[in-house]
Amino acid sequence: MSEIRSIFITGGASGIGRATARLFAQRGWRVGIADVNDAGLAETMALLGGGMAQRYHLDVRDREAWNEALSAFVEASGGRLDVLFNNAGIGTGGPLADTSFDDVDRTIAVNFTGVVNGAKLAYPYLARTPGSCLLNTASASAIYGSSGLATYSATKFAVRALTEALDGEWHAAGIRVRDLVPSFIETPLLDGVSANSNRSIRETVTAAGLELTPVEAVAEAAWAAVHGTRLHTYVGKTAHRLAFAARWMPGSLRKRMKRTLGG
């Protein structure tokens, strides 16, 4: 088995995935990036400078594509997979009653089923790599359900629950399971328009009084999570404030969420 550590990152064409790929590559890791956005993947590869980096076209809903990408990357990495970073996700906003079932189904399939697919299919590779880690991207929306982002919040709650469950299940196999719980991040994901509205997700978030966090902060948090002992790594002031409020001031948080959409 190669001595060079390796990380496979979904959603590597932009945002958190790109920033994390750059950070790990700069610190000597072999990096595999995967996404459905081929143009974005090419841009990330250019930033990584080639070398110990590979890219893969991957729709996280496609299990066969997962198998092919993971097999190819592990072969390129000399038989090891130190970290699977389940990071790919999409955002949909607007009241649930106004959101199409197509948008609901796609959000659940990408944000949660895609994470389950990656975890299950990467398990054999992680189990044979000493000290390996499964890292999932949750969200501040996994702390308290966000009005106007109901389906998105539900998928991120599910990712958090999966992380907690697998932390127990996979302990005996020597696999550490972690998640990131970042504030809303300054990425193109926020430019999506809420259902039946001209309001973007970015505008919904800022209307709730929540600031945005730079992707570089999340990349550093990913590094810390992979090398640390925390199950949940909160990133950004909003995530920490929401965690505090959910525990100590749930009534105030409920009132804020009711005001977000004018309820």
Features:
oxidoreductase; NAD(P)-bd_dom_sf; SDR_fam; 48% helix; Rossmann fold; oxidoreductase activity; globular; single chain; NAD(P)-dependent dehydrogenase (Short-subunit alcohol dehydrogenase family); 263 residues; seven-stranded parallel sheet; 9 helices; 7 strands; alpha/beta
How would you summarize this macromolecular structure in one to three sentences?
By secondary structure, this protein is an alpha/beta fold. It is built from 9 helices and 7 strands; from the N terminus they run βαβαβαβαβαβααβαα.
Topology of helices and strands:
Elements: E1 6-10, H1 15-26, E2 30-35, H2 38-48, E3 53-57, H3 63-76, E4 83-86, H4 101-127, E5 133-137, H5 150-169, E6 176-182, H6 201-207, H7 215-227, E7 232-235, H8 237-248, H9 250-260
Parallel strand pairs: 1-2, 1-4, 2-3, 4-5, 5-6, 6-7
How would you characterize this protein structure?
The chain has 263 residues and is an alpha/beta fold. Helix 3 runs parallel beside helix 4, helix 4 packs parallel to helix 5 and helix 8 crosses helix 9. It contains nine helices and seven strands. It starts with 5 loop residues before the first strand and ends with a helix. A seven-stranded parallel sheet has the order 3-2-1-4-5-6-7, sandwiched between helices. Helices cover 48% and strands 14% of the residues. The longest helix is centred in the middle third of the chain and has 27 residues. The model has no long low-confidence stretch (mean pLDDT 87). It has a single domain, classed as 3-Layer(aba) Sandwich (Rossmann fold). This is NAD(P)-dependent dehydrogenase (Short-subunit alcohol dehydrogenase family). InterPro entries: NAD(P)-bd_dom_sf (IPR036291), SDR_fam (IPR002347).
